Amino acid sequence: MGDFKVIVRNNGPYRLEGEGITICDQEGRVYGLAGRTVVSLCRCGHSANKPFCDGTHNKVGFQSECQAHELPPPQAEGVVTERRMIEENPGESDWCSSRTA
Ligand code: FES
User: Does residue 50 surpass a pLDDT of 70?
Assistant: First the structure.
């Protein structure tokens, strides 16, 4: 195991712990974390300081309990998955929503 980990907090945020945490926006710009080795990212969608948790999950009663589990093996290169179709065809949301759980 590495020195970096993400903890999925029940009814709360993703907690990142480790040295050298780097969080970027979609364009690759880096959020300044002022040397923090612990950062919490919003998982409830209600933070006023996204992507960071501001504690609002408590006020809105966010509930999500997660237990670690295994993912299926990754798809081989060249296999078009439903997820990949969604990412590559964002305007096709009707198609995507009718094929995803
Ligand atoms: S998880 Fe804390 S504000 Fe969303």
Answer: yes
